[in-house]
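Regression report. Comparing outputs from two consecutive submissions.

Submission 1:
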Amino acid sequence: MEFPILLIIIIALALIFDFINGFHDAANSIATIVSTKVLTPFQAVLWAALWNFAAFFIAAYVVGEFKIGNTIAKTVDENFITLEVIFAGLVAAIAWNLFTWWFGIPSSSSHTLIGGFIGAALMHALITDYHVITQTHPEYSFFETVTQSFKQLFSQNIVKYKVVIPIFLFIFLAPFIGMFVSIIITLIIVNICKRSNPHKAERAFKKLQLVSSALFSLGHGTNDAQKVMGIIGAAMIYFHVNMIHDPQYLSIPEAERFAYFAQHYLWVPFVSFLAIGLGTMSGGWKIIKTMGTRITKVTPLEGVSAETAGAVTLFITDHLGIPVSTTHTITGSIIGVGLTKRVSAVRWGVTVSLLWAWVLTIPISAIIAGITYLIVVLFF
């Protein structure tokens, strides 16, 4: 079976995004383990990359499904998905990811991908409505046509709010869950170990940090690689249903098509997890400094607490099928361990800057994707 050129480009771009996501989010998995000097940065990225890739086998053969990938593929109504929409969304996501990586801002790769997908779909619907109105009402002025196009746009169910609203809520809930869990874990550990020899305890926690960072990297791989898989899945399903009218896909209910795609093209999740692992190996040194030291100073005990709390949060959200930001999650967890010392231990100036980046990611990605889609339609 031959794939169209644009579909091949989308798959390539998605895997490039996945790779960028890996080095952009490398700090999430290794910031605390590097800042506590348990591993060198090079050793840490290799350790994180190994567990990022190992997450594929957990998702495919233990869990047996890819819930987060399915959620991503269904953020937009299938009627408003085209290859051009997916292409524009990916270009926007890559652009915002590289911009935030360059300036050392730990923004969410997850939310930039979702924002790009939604923004491109909205622009596609707007342009389609504009053309329909110009044909049905040629007497309208340009301003009237644009006004009617926007009215039509807002009356359509382009975005699946049932899917998207939980994602928006977890922009704020994920860091708070991570923070709450890390506070509880830290307090429990401190009370259990308060009579322990400090040097022996520190050595023990440095060893435990290898386990906690591995768990967080598993959660990171499971959560983030599936997002790219979801975008590729949306493109492949569009190809089978709308371009070649594959009877096998057409006979399957819309809600079950993604699961069939994941079995039909098992190489897609495999290379998605592999790409994020390779990206993690390349590291993200600018962001590591922000995550590991600028939010709060972290000891091995606190590193174990933060990473374990982050892992628990990611495993819960994966079970629920809600894509969350690993950046937000580990940031909340690190803030939690800082709060167990004192409120002033957290550098709130840095934290507020991160919060602004989180809030702006989806709308900015959506705007970039909309403009990109407009350029693609007008010039190609």
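Submission 2:
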Amino acid sequence: MGTLFDEAAAGGARTVVHLDRPFDIAPRAGTRWAVTELADLVRATAARLADAGVRPGDRVAIVKDNHWDYDLLACAAVRLGAVPALLSARLDTAHLVTLLERLRPAALITTAAVLARCRDTAAGAPARIVVTVDSAAPGAAHLAALDASRPCVPVRRHDDEPLVIHHTSGTTGVPKLVVHSTRTLVHKLARFEAVRYPGIGIRPDDVLANASAYGHGRTFCWTAVVMSLAPAGIVILTGDDPRTADPLLRAHPPTVVEALPASYIRLRPLTTRLDNPFRRVRLYISTYDAVHPPALRAYLTASRRARPLWMQGWGQTETGPLTFRFHTRRSALAPDAETTARRLGRPVPGRTRLRAVDPDTLSPVPRGRPGLLLVRTLALALGYVGEQERWDAKRVGDWWSTGDMGVHHRDGSVSILDRAADTLPGMSCLRTEDVLEQRLPQALECVILGAPDGDPLPVVVTADGRLDPDAWKQATHGLPALRDPAVLTWDEVPRTGTGKVRRAALARQLTGTAPAGTGRWT
């Protein structure tokens, strides 16, 4: 990964990257980048980090505003033989400080605002070396002021040594720090994806749009894939405001779109425009979480292609993708689309095995019955930083506990019911949320929270924080008993860096108590 952009440039890649705003590490260099320019930027950034004192084997924490240059900084650190640890700036300050204490990084690459947050909360210095990317700060070097001219010979580490550290979403509490190696992330994950599969592989004439959380693990793998396949263009969205995204997407209409589920929700109004920017899309990709059927239908209908596809992947930071499912216009419009929305496909043939077990006894349960989902994959990460006991506790012999409750069906496919920490007796929160979103067109998102006593609390997210009582009454017909809903706007809901709802934090915000469920397998 340290020479990824050099190799792409040497191979003649003519990909042009368009940004919705300049890189934080190159604020005056504009929003249009060729591969050769990206290679120069990574080399210069590596030289600057070396000038700051970063050495082979050092852990380098990276915490900054959301942008693809998270991965450029990571590649620069890898080039020096260091191990980048990418942390979202959207983490609660207390959680961020906890992760930095577990990491004990030699260097922290951050912004002046994040540095101030850490210094106000942490007991000691966050790292021996501190570099700010946006502006000068007391006790820190400014990235732009460091020497970029000294060449740095790439340092190659063994394939089984740590390559990069990412954190999990953190929906149930403090995220885990996941360590991947070159073998697990590049050889087992990126190399499998970097194949021009018929229908879903990246083509030389494709324009890829990505609206992601670039500090999380998916985009580091994605970066390796797209640079090796060299599409015609890449469009990078750092936010999900439709007014900002629309002109860039219309100027460079994508043929392949990958976005966070939360970003798909926020950008959905663009699908209804006559000249919508998704008219050329042949493939949509979603990871992190399932996308609800109304959004699937909106995007598939927005494409003017004859047979656009939606590829939905289920996986985790620790494992990478585990299953895939494809949606078409026909399947998204099927009468059972809401009840099968959490059916996330079959394990990747020859690469992943799945089984469902009783969460208490760990004995296998028959196909078609709910259980705790275990997986086997050669792409399993190396461990958790600072939490080896937690890592060991999730190992069940040769199997790995996903922490998800689900059903392994007789045809081999998998349905997700809930996280083990969120599960409630007699109902699936996720399936109930799918039904509510289908019945409430004005809802941006619905969340079901378990309560220590009484019926679950539903939370309905709308654009204006309002919900018609009659519409709610009709939407809940035939569903399990629920309390009266809490109605919030999008920004009132605590979220992870990937836009997922932090259910435990939301429950405490609304009720003062943690949700029902167990955190044993999280």
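Expected: both submissions complete independently.
Actual: both completed, but the second showed a warning that disappeared on reload.
Relevant detail on submission 2: The chain has a mean pLDDT of 91.
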